[in-house]
Amino acid sequence: MSLSKRVSLTPQSPAQPQQDLKHRVITCLNKLSDRDTLAVAATELESIALSLNHDSFAPFLTYLSATSSSDKSPVRRQCVRILGVLSITHGDALSPHVSKMLAAVVRRLRDPDSAVRSACVGAVSSIASEISKPSFSSLSKPLVEAVLTEQDQNSQIGSALCLSAAIEASPDPEPAQLQKLLPRVLKLIKSDGFKAKPALLTVIGSIAAAGGASSNRNSLNSLIPCLVDFLSSDDWAARKAAVEALGRLAVVEKVHLTAFRSSCLASLENKRFDKVKVVRESMNQTLELWKEIPGHLDEVPVSPQLNANSSSKDNGPPVTFLETPLKETIPSSRNSPIQRSSPTTTQSRSPPKSNYRKPNASIARKVDFEKETDSKVNIPASMDCKEKFINKKMEPSERVDTDKTIILETEKRVTEQVISNKTREGNFGKLNGSRFGSRVVPFIDDCEFEINGNTIEYDYGNQKEVEDLSWIQKQLVQIENQQSNLLNLLQKFMGNSRSGMNSLETRVNGLERALDEISYDLAISSGRVSTKDSCCMGVPTLLNSVVLLLQQLPEEASSH
């Protein structure tokens, strides 16, 4: 009897561990529904996942997938999170079960709880990074289908974020497949039916970072304008995702973005002062990345005069030109840098005079010569000038001396003009020690030089910096005017207060005299003082005057 029972129990022994596993998992899931036992149940469920063997993977995944949307949010979240723990712990041993794990994740993408969708993103990231046996195309196929076909907004958000996480976490995201996917994503993001624009922009950024836009000019021609358009979106999350995608693109595709550099920099400059702080920070970071892209303006062209100089050795003396290397920094000396002028320059421009000094009623400002870096002063030919240097018939040694003479004469006249301006304006710009520096802009009115009919162009820097300095100067003048108005108002208030105090003091003195007279009259009426020599007014008259004074005191006090 006992032997028969043993024989009957022997076939049930392999199923016993699975029954125990099911019981333990269901018990943990029930405990997850209670807030008091949530932490203990999560720890126990994680320990079960760590101790699984190869035969227990399939039933364990089945038990986790048995949860429904009617379960509480902690249960749904922990069931998805455990998939990531399994991937990290067991790795490629789960390769046969990847499709089942992804199906469980996709089922939870419709979840209204953002914490559950975040757990899905984490689980997909772990699966893509730890399980390497299935190809990336097989891994991403259900996620791509979910992105392209789902109509629910929560599902669109979750599937897009999961696809982005899979692309970034995968060791080999297969850029060739991503290049095929990018046009479909760009077409989808322009559709009004797809509502999760920020999440899909994140996918575009991940594709760009993984090389999905490389060596495909057509993709760049459609991708960059699309991202630039989203910089003006009303949704700040879309603006942030778009500018981050532009930043990733600038890092990976730096060489292929030269043609788009100027337009993107202009768009980023216009949108850099966003009202949302995180968007502003992303704008500034992306702007710096795009400035590092080499553009057409960054290439220094070779002057035609160099070729003319080398080719004219046998055909006569070369054209004289002055060459100074370009510098982006402000020169420290007072000698102005001379920019090499083009031989085709024939039109002259008068030097700016009124752009550097802004009149003010109280303070006359001066602009320092060495700090002005943004104006270009052309010194054209003039028939009234006494010095004209035409060196077409000069020897080479004489041409060198002529060039040096031109530079010395120019510096001498500029220095004389600076001293003259300082002498004329020495009596201005002083207020309480003149905290602002004295600055003068030199310019040449009458004398101009000509070298072989070509103008010598003085370059003081970038025009934008001059505009910035002028704007700062206007702001300083406005602040000083406001301070002057406040000082005048304060002085006027102090004067009114002082006059009010004097008037009040006069009233009080009058009241004291009236009280003295009243006391004197009372003494007379009581007979304590003789009335023979008394010439004071009567008691009723004095009382009336006192009443009038008392009535005027509150009015005077309230007015001051």
TrEMBL record:
Domain (TORTIFOLIA1/SINE1-2 N-terminal): give its ranges: 19-292
Q: What keywords tag this UniProt record?
A: Coiled coil
In this chain, the stretch annotated as Disordered covers 1-20, 301-375
Q: Which Pfam families match?
A: TOR1L1_N
Picking any one GO molecular function of the record gives: microtubule binding
Cellular component annotations (GO), alphabetically ordered: microtubule
Where would one find coiled-coil regions in this protein? 472-521
Which residue ranges contain the repeat HEAT? 101-139
Please note every region of biased composition (Basic and acidic residues). 365-375
Task: Please name the InterPro entries in this protein's record.
Answer: ARM-like (IPR011989), ARM-type_fold (IPR016024), HEAT_type_2 (IPR021133), TORTIFOLIA1/SINE1-2 (IPR033337), TORTIFOLIA1/SINE1-2_N (IPR057600)
Q: Where does this protein have compositionally biased stretches of type Low complexity?
A: 336-354
Family matches, as PROSITE patterns: HEAT_REPEAT (PS50077)
Q: Ranges of Polar residues compositional bias?
A: 1-19, 304-314
What name does this protein carry? TORTIFOLIA1/SINE1-2 N-terminal domain-containing protein
- Name the source organism: Lactuca virosa
Recite the lineage of the species. Answer: Eukaryota, Viridiplantae, Streptophyta, Embryophyta, Tracheophyta
